[in-house]
Write a structure and sequence with these properties.
single chain, mainly alpha, MetI-like fold
């Protein structure tokens, strides 16, 4: 990939984002869209500059609950994903139950968490955890299932135990699936935190947006959305950076596709 293509890949997301906000601003001004329906980006920036301290404090709270829930989801998803992917018995026993649990609307669990743990940080962490846990589990189990029977047979013929087959072939094979799921799970974790904060919290971006909407301060509501989106993009980029470093071998042909 030449330098110009690399620079264009770096600039494209910024150019598209700036263009989107410019179109948004022009459309709001051209059609005189009321602020309480859709505020222009300039109004959103104005709300950010008017309430920088509350936005920062609530953003840090949302980031905290999201990261803790996400880390717990990684740990649980890895452990159960390895167990489900490595054992047919565990798969048959747990997978139907996990699918049934994942089918439950997560917002319906927030009142239950409030009854158990009260209003505050814990329900937000648990909601972020349960909403981001399942994609990690499924992808890790799928990665283990992609081990070729021939590779497994060769390793076993060389004297490798089941544990050695899992650690030397299964886990490396599942890494691309794991990191793909992490990029999905981190965005879902933010969804879980904000949902819980709008229902059962005294701080966080979700609570800030709920308070702002109650007084029809729509620019502040959109400012909260923008902040959550920015944090989501930042953590997604971190996961993508780890993915490129840890699984470069799995995407060795991608430069041919992107380079044209």
């Amino acid at each position: 990939m030449n330098a110009s293509n690399r620079q264009m890949q770096i600039l494209m997301p910024w150019l598209v984002t700036v263009a989107m906000f410019l179109v948004w601003e022009v459309a709001c001004r051209l059609f005189n869209v009321p602020q309480f329906i859709l505020p222009a980006p300039s109004k959103i920036i104005g709300a950010m500059s008017e309430y920088p301290v509350p936005i920062m404090q609530n953003a840090l709270q949302t980031l905290f609950t999201t990261v803790i829930g996400f880390v717990l989801a990684i740990a649980a998803g890895l452990l159960l994903g390895l167990a489900v992917g490595a054992s047919t018995l565990v798969y048959n026993g747990l997978y139907p139950l996990l699918i049934a649990f994942n089918s439950i609307p997560k917002v319906a669990l927030v009142p239950v968490f409030v009854i158990w743990f009260g209003i505050g940080t814990v329900p937000a962490i648990l909601t972020a955890f349960i909403i981001s846990f399942f994609p990690i589990l499924v992808n890790v189990a799928t990665g283990l299932a992609t081990i070729e029977p021939e590779m497994r047979d060769v390793l076993r013929s060389l004297g490798a135990s089941k544990l050695e087959v899992l650690t030397k072939a299964g886990i490396p094979r599942s890494l691309p699936y794991l990191f793909a799921s992490l990029k999905i799970a981190i965005t879902l974790a933010f969804v879980g935190s904000v949902i819980s904060e709008t229902v059962a919290a005294n701080d966080g971006i979700g609570h800030l947006m709920l308070t702002a909407s109650s007084r029809f301060d729509v620019p502040l509501v959109f400012a909260g959305l923008v902040v959550v989106a920015a944090m989501g993009v930042a953590l997604y980029a971190i996961c993508a950076a780890f993915e490129r470093r840890m699984t470069r071998w799995a995407f060795r042909g991608s430069e041919l596709i992107s380079g044209g």
